[in-house]
Every structure is written in C-alpha cells, then in structure tokens.
C-alpha cells in the first residue's frame, strides 16, 4: 500500500479484509499513518460488534473480536484520529459505525500498539 501512496498529496485508507480484532489492529498500526491530515481512514464492518453473538458461525470474528473493538483499542494511542459520528448520523444504514476516522493532526506517537 505504501508504494501506491508515495508522492500522493491526499491519501484515504479503507480497511476491509479480515475482520478479526488482531488483524484490523495490525492494519491500523501498519497503514493509518499513510492517511493525510484532514483525510480519512474507513474501517469497515465495525457493525459486527452490534450484531447478535455468533451471527457469523463460520468466521473467526464475532462480538468482542472485530473491527470496532480494534478501532477503540487503537485510538487509545492515536488521538490524532477522531471518530466522525456525523457520518454515522447521516446514514440510515451503516456497516461502519465508529469506523470513520478523520486524521486531525500529525501523530504525537512514535510507537505502535501491540495486541495482547
């Protein structure tokens, strides 16, 4: 992904692959710093956290192990990204509640978060 963002003025990142907490946390740690100030990182499928448990019996993600839980953990260490609730509030249906992150500033952190 870095090679695609190299030399580009504005970068928006959209994360929508494996929806486990650990995988999304790793994606955010690896790629969110590519997002330009005033641009967005969209983390999709955060709605998994709000569905009944075991809604996806053939998948490793579930309530407590999904993109939304990863976003909330990752943001503890990345205040430069703000949740944009206004987008959620405008949508009638969303697969990404709490998944619209606006990069408001440059990161004050020089470390990455690791999952436990």
Number of beta-strand segments: 4
Average pLDDT for all residues:
91
Q: Structural class, from secondary structure content?
A: alpha+beta
**Dominant shape:** globular
Determine the N-to-C terminus distance: 25 Å
How would you characterize the largest beta sheet? 4 strands, mixed
> Helical region count?
4
Helical content stands at 25-40%
Give the helices and strands as they follow along the chain: HEHEHEHE
- The largest sheet has its strands arranged as 1-2-4-3
Please compute the radius of gyration using only Cα atoms. Answer: 14 Å
Strand content: 5-15%
Uncertain spans? 110-116
**Number of folding domains?**
1
Overview of this structure, please?
The protein is of the alpha+beta class and 116 residues long. The protein has one domain. Helices cover 26% and strands 12% of the residues. It has a four-stranded mixed beta sheet. Helix 2 crosses helix 3. The longest helix has 11 residues. It is globular and about 40 Å long. The two termini are 25 Å apart.
């Amino acid at each position: 992904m870095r090679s695609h963002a190299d030399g580009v003025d504005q970068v928006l990142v959209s994360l929508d692959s494996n929806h486990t907490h650990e995988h999304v946390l790793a994606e955010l740690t690896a790629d969110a710093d590519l997002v330009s100030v005033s641009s967005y990182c969209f983390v999709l499928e955060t709605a998994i956290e709000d569905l009944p448990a075991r809604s996806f019996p053939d998948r490793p993600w579930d309530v407590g192990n999904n993109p939304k839980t990863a976003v909330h953990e990752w943001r503890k260490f990345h205040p430069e990204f703000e949740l944009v609730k206004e987008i959620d509030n405008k949508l009638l249906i969303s697969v990404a509640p709490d998944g619209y992150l606006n990069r408001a500033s440059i990161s004050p952190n020089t470390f990455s978060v690791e999952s436990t």
